[in-house]
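Chapter summary example.
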Amino acid sequence: EQNSNMARPSFTSMLPGIIAAFAFIVSIFAGTYCKFISFTSTNDGGNDPITLYFGIWYYQGWSVVTNDVQGTVILETCHNYPSGTKLDSDWRSARAFSTLALIIGGILTFWALMVWCFYPTKQMYKAGGILYMLCCLFQGLSLLLTNSEACRNLLTPSQGLLSEDTNLYFQSSCSMAMGAYCAIAATVLWFVAAITAWMVDPPVRPPITTQTHDVTYTKTTNGADGATIVSENVVKGEPVAVGGRGAEKAV
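The structure predicted for these 251 residues follows.
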């Protein structure tokens, strides 16, 4: 008789995947949202300052939509950069590293959340920790955008994002916006996921056991009528592990 109990992994063994899931969600927001850096107008005159937002791949813009119910509505949307926008090496690097963090982190997060299906070894968990640390490095390098042309000369007329006849003046360098703060948070979360993967033990599949039975048959003859009676006595043995990790300890 064989028995295989499918026990769910503990919370601690799932912790690297849970932390990585939060890191991946924040990484998506940091890499794809159009509010990574910002420029605030410096015009005097008592009017409220205007803040413009820009991301690694998109910038904030406004679209005018007209419908029969609400009339004309101005919506804040994300737009692709004009084809003539000049990208320096830091800006291109920020794009590449943020993309690598999303691809590697996404695959690794999916793997980490499915550990209860295939029960990885401790060596696999340690390898996952190295990849988490790689995601931490790539995510941190996406902050190169704050040191690129996007942070210094993005609002010059040559970039095509600001009209030459505008009467608005903006700060000479950018400030970090929500996307940059999300990149910092994701960097920390990837680091924590790596440390956790190195420290916790992966889930262990319960051993498959087999149990032996000792059966004794006793044959007796009834003296009165000569009938033969056969009785059965079953003695169950101790379960013995025959498969699964940890079987050696169970023997």
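To summarize the output: Helices lie at 11-32, 89-113, 115-118, 122-141, 149-152, 178-199, 247-250.
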